[in-house]
Design a protein that fits this description.
Length: 407
Amino acid sequence: MATLDIQTPRVFAPLLQPARYKGAHGGRGSGKSHFFAELLIERAIVQPGLRWSCIREIQKSLKQSVKQLLEDKIEKFGVGGRFDVLETEIRTPGGGLVIFQGMQNHTADSIKSLEGFDGAWVEEAHSLSARSLRLLRPTLRKPGSEIWLSWNPESPEDPVDAFLRGPDAVPDSIVIQANWRDNPFWNDTLEAERQIDLARDPDTYDHVWEGGYLTVSDAVIFRNRVSVEAFDTPPHARFFHGADWGFSQDPTVLIRAFVEGEVLYVDREVFGHGVELDETPMLFDQIETARKWPIKADSARPETISHMKRRGFNISPADKWAGSVEDGIAHLKGFKRIVVHERCPNIAKEFRLYSYKLDRQTGDVLPIIVDKHNHGIDALRYALDGYIKGKGPMRISPEALIAAKRR
């Protein structure tokens, strides 16, 4: 069967060759997603019966998937008669199938359903956890199967970067970098957006448009104080739970933490975007201890706190005072270390980005906290309410922990 007439930008040409792993990283407007979408539609036509999984680390709904992009490509190439686009999947010629899934919901048993698939495309692969990558790779075991990954890099420590771009790159892989300069379909609208960021947001321009890593500067508040790693939670830990409520595009967050000695551990998180009030209990119940232990929450939403109380949560407002944000940060920095479990990628990212304001002219770090990348960190401050009282670096004594366990 003849292939489709697809104009492939030169930068993506290496990815047309067979390889177990195909990676494309770079900034906004590079065409990475469009290339893989077109390649998948073509592959489905020339390989009847193809079965493929389109994956993200977290996928709460199909709106977060690449399903709409694939539908657009099917329409663009005029091959709608060969595909059956259903609500949750796309059926391809010859009895094939394209499905859309979130890796975070998979277990070692559930992912076995992908064993016979021909491949997977992981979009926004910078968010893919080490656990998910470990689950996915050996599951797709069909001879000739491929794993495609597209992402805008954030950190060289992200699992996908360590796997495909690290000093020990895996064999049988083709990895390319694509940016806006490589896109022959670049248009005036994208160029105007790029120029705005170049002029107004130079701190993140390189990451957004040039595919550079998010840089760590002296302005980052928790620089060199936080590590992300796997650890076992002690069976008798005294848990601290903190909640931050979502406003508009901001997420609703619940964080769980505990303290050992002078080290603060964050071992659970839930982040929900667009969560309605009646859906919040279900979100919080994703942390199994949420109903068993006290929760301290942002006092700005007393009606939400009342609602959660009526739904069976032991929740109360955290104290706020003039300078409580600064005091809270000072106390968090008073710990010898903060360790975030690798299953908590959202607050881990916040710790990398939460920063003081920079003077654009002089480069000086100003004593002004930028109100961004802080929803999980705010929830963590609330969780420790009662121990943060603006009296110098925080140390939770063993006696205090024992007393807290008895409450």
